[in-house]
Design a protein that fits this description.
With 175 residues, the protein is α/β, with parallel strands linked by helices. Helices cover 35% and strands 19% of the residues. It has 7 helices and 6 strands; from the N terminus they run E-H-E-H-E-H-H-E-H-E-H-E-H. A 6-stranded parallel beta sheet has the order 2-1-3-4-6-5, with helices on both faces. Strand 1 (7-11), helix 1 and strand 2 form a beta-alpha-beta unit. The longest helix is centred in the last third of the chain and has 12 residues, at 162-173.
């Protein structure tokens, strides 16, 4: 089972955090985020800290592609210490949290092969997935790997969680 009593779920601020509010986990799990300060770059080093605090844990990291590119250097210590994290990059081609309020090319990020980048840092495995079937197969594959893995999940440029749409709908009116 991918999620069990040893899972620590970490959600980066942005739509990774907003979407995670709708998750229903089958166990009492740990959930970590930097939601109070809303600063990007917490979850990758947070996964390292969570694992060092409890080496029986398995961090599952939800992070957007924009934030991942800002903090990808943290893949190096994840690999160095063989942290068994599953990093899930939600790739919507940019800073998706801002798009519903105001869109422009300033929200776009350089396309990167996240799986290949993670493997260059020493991750055990990386997958690029574009369908739910591929996602399920990739999750099954990485669930038994001892060490860091990454799944890059291709989303539409305008795929947003319901929670983000509610928040940005109100904020857009004030702009």
């Amino acid at each position: 089972m991918l999620v069990d009593e040893n899972t620590v779920l970490l959600a980066e601020v942005g739509d990774s955090l907003f979407a995670s509010a709708a998750l229903h986990l089958p166990f009492e799990n740990s959930f970590l985020t930097s939601g109070f300060w809303c600063s990007l770059g917490f979850v990758l080093p947070g996964a390292i800290g969570a694992w060092f605090a409890n080496k029986q844990s398995r961090p599952i990291v939800l992070i957007g592609d924009g934030s991942f590119l800002m903090s990808a250097i943290e893949c190096a210590p994840l690999a160095r210490y063989n942290v068994p994290a599953i990093v899930i990059v939600l790739d919507n081609e940019g800073y998706g949290t801002e798009r519903p309020m105001i869109d422009g090319e300033f929200n776009d990020v350089q396309p990167v092969d996240h799986a290949m980048l993670a493997q260059a840092y020493g991750f055990k495995k990386g997958h690029r997935v574009t369908t739910e079937f591929e996602l399920q197969a990739a999750l099954t594959d990485v669930s038994t790997i001892d060490g860091p893995t990454l799944l890059s999940v291709k989303l539409g440029k305008f795929d947003f969680s319901d929670a983000l749409m509610k928040l940005t709908g109100g904020l857009k009116k004030r702009m």
